[in-house]
Amino acid sequence: MLVARGKMGDAALVEIRDDLIFFTYSVRGVEYTASQDISTLRDHVPQDLSALLAVAVKYLSHNPANSIVLAEAWTGLRLGKPAH
Fold first, then answer.
1. Considering Cα of 39, then 33, then 78, then 17, what sign does the dihedral take?
2. Taking the alpha carbons of 57, 52, 74, 47 in that order, is the dihedral positive or negative?
3. Sequence-distant (≥ 6) Cβ neighbours of residue 51 within 8 angstroms
4. 3-state class of 59 per DSSP?
5. pLDDT on residue 82
6. Can you say how many angstroms the Cα of residue 8 is from the centroid of all Cα atoms in its chain?
7. 8: Cβ–Cβ under 8 A, 6 or more apart, which residues?
8. 17 vs 13, 22, 45, CA distance in Å?
9. CA-CA to 51 of 20 to 30 Å: which in 39, 77, 81, 84?
10. What is the pTM of this model?
């Protein structure tokens, strides 16, 4: 539901530890810190996060604390081109 109906905003990646991804974002002046279990989505996480440029979050407008940065059909992990 979040992929189809969620609002999108900017987020900051805090940490990836084991199967959890931690991120922060702000909605209408309120800052949220959240985590997401990505154990079933590990294939969608790039091995090298050094090229990570930005992170997007999808959240419910009536409950902004309900959020994701990664799903099977969508990713908020924005990677740049690898450096040569």
1. negative
2. negative
3. 79, 80, 81, 82, 83
4. strand
5. 52
6. 10
7. 56, 57, 58, 76
8. 11, 8, 12
9. 39
10. 0.84
Q: How many of the other CB atoms lie within 10 Å of CB of 68?
A: 21
Distance CA 33, CA 26 (A): 9
Q: Give the contacts of 7 (CB within 8 A, at least 6 positions apart).
A: 58, 59, 60, 61
Other CB atoms closer than 10 Å to residue 6's CB: what's the count? 19
Q: Beta partners for 79?
A: 52
Q: Using pLDDT thresholds of 50, 70 and 90, give the confidence band for residue 15.
A: confident
Taking the CB of residue 24, how many other CB atoms lie within 10 A of it? Answer: 14
Give the domain ranges of the chain: 2-79
User: Could you tell me whether strands 74-75 and 20-27 are parallel, antiparallel, or unpaired per DSSP bridges?
Assistant: unpaired
What angle (nearest 5°) sits at the alpha carbon of residue 69, between those of residues 75 and 39? Answer: 90
- Confidence tier at 47 by pLDDT (50, 70, 90): confident
